[in-house]
Design a protein that fits this description.
The chain has three domains: 54 residues, Structural Genomics Hypothetical 15.5 Kd Protein In mrcA-pckA Intergenic Region, Chain A (Roll); 90 residues, Pseudouridine synthase I, catalytic domain, N-terminal subdomain (Alpha-Beta Plaits); 78 residues, 2-Layer Sandwich (Alpha-Beta Plaits). A hairpin with a 2-residue loop joins strand 5 and strand 6. It is globular, with a radius of gyration of 19 Å. By secondary structure, the protein is of the alpha+beta class. The strands form three sheets. Strands 7, 8, 9, 10, 11, 12, 13, 14 and 15 form a nine-stranded mixed sheet that branches. A four-stranded antiparallel sheet has the order 3-2-5-6. Strands 1-4 form a two-stranded antiparallel sheet.
């Protein structure tokens, strides 16, 4: 499989935060020391850490950072199983950027776990990405879950009514679900994005999710896009995303 080949140009984390307009370098050091910065999914408090702006995913206070770009790009990717939803993986596993190879520095909008397949957006529009990922946007995420046993109609209300997850006692918001033909497959639509939420919801009810596919995100579906392939969004699709995020075109 092709790997993206780029010359690394690393900068200190405080300089990168300043380049993104977050704070001065001195204040950026304080932000790092306070544990408010995540690099590739891990909190860092190392002031001297060097990052690669072309590959690393940097998040401050839950907000994904990106340097100003002359051209904004918006991509829909049909993620295969076992592909990691990060820009870089320390274990050298297959990542989304081994499949989506463009000259712009793009980042995933949210995450899909390693085993989950389906619709994933990538962009260098940090403002839009942050708005879509914020709970206030209530972006709809649709899944088809394949279970280990047939799901009874008697449990639908419990599944959709706003349950408490068994492992943590955390409450999830009400959602929509439909049992498909064979009973082993469930269509589910949620507006949240808690870690492994769909799998944990079914585990709470005593079912194991054998396969999970996200069939739509914010109204965008894979359509004829084959697993592992990607495409640019149309202007109309980008406008629809901005509307959902509450951003003026």
């Amino acid at each position: 499989m092709r790997k993206q080949i780029e010359e690394k140009q690393t900068v200190r984390i405080n300089k990168y935060l300043a380049m993104c307009g977050i704070a001065s370098r001195r204040t950026a050091d304080e932000i790092v020391a306070a544990g408010r910065v995540m690099v590739n999914g891990r909190v860092t408090a190392e002031a001297g850490l060097k990052v690669d702006p072309s590959a690393d995913e940097i998040i401050v206070d839950g907000r994904m950072l990106a340097l100003p770009e002359a051209k904004k790009v918006y991509i829909l990717f049909n993620k295969p199983r076992h592909v990691i939803t990060t820009n870089r993986d320390e274990k050298s596993r297959d990542t989304v950027l081994d499949h989506v190879i463009v000259k712009e520095r793009v980042y995933p909008v949210g995450r899909l776990d390693r085993k989950t397949t389906g619709v994933l957006l990538l962009t260098n529009d940090g403002n839009l990405a942050n708005k879509l990922m914020h709970p206030s946007s209530c972006v709809k995420k649709e899944y088809i879950a394949v279970l280990d046993n047939k799901f009874p109609h008697a449990l639908l209300l419990q599944l959709t009514g706003g349950m408490r997850l068994k492992d943590t006692g955390e409450k999830v918001m009400p959602c929509h679900a439909r049992i498909l033909d064979d009973g082993l497959q469930i269509w589910l639509s949620i507006h949240e994005g808690k870690n492994h939420q769909v799998r944990r919801m079914f585990e709470t009810l005593g079912f194991e999710v054998k396969r999970l596919d996200r069939v739509a995100y914010a109204g965008l579906a894979a359509g004829d896009l084959r697993r592992g392939d990607w495409r640019y969004l149309s202007r109309k699709e980008v406008q629809q995303l901005h509307q959902q995020a509450g951003i003026s075109a």
